[in-house]
């Protein structure tokens, strides 16, 4: 992950901490391998390495209208909402495209 992105991520983490909120923990290598397998099977594509690097740190993020999809739907700290799952959202998007 490049330094600019890491700096922005650190600022987000500090901001959330002031609100007594946190970002989701990262995935394990086993979880990441399983997720990559599901992506290949369900979406016929591999995830970018930069996204995999982010998932190792935080399994998704929702902040100020920005969504970085998680490997599965997870509770959002300090909210009743849940994160958006990468495969689920991509399948939904593909279904919508097919309706045109």
UniProtKB/TrEMBL annotation:
Gene3D superfamilies given in the database record: SMI1/KNR4-like
InterPro entries cross-referenced by the UniProt entry: Knr4/Smi1-like_sf
The protein's name: SMI1/KNR4 family protein
Native source species: Pseudomonas syringae pv. apii
């Amino acid at each position: 992950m490049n330094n600019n992105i890491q700096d922005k991520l650190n600022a987000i983490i500090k901001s959330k901490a002031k609100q007594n909120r946190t970002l989701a923990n990262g995935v394990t290598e086993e979880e990441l391998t399983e997720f990559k397998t599901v992506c290949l099977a369900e979406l016929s594509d591999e995830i970018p390495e930069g996204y995999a690097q982010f998932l190792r740190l935080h399994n998704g993020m929702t902040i100020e209208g920005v969504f970085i999809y998680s490997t599965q739907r997870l509770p959002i700290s300090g909210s009743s909402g849940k994160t958006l799952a990468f495969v689920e959202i991509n399948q939904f998007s593909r279904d919508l495209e097919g309706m045109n």
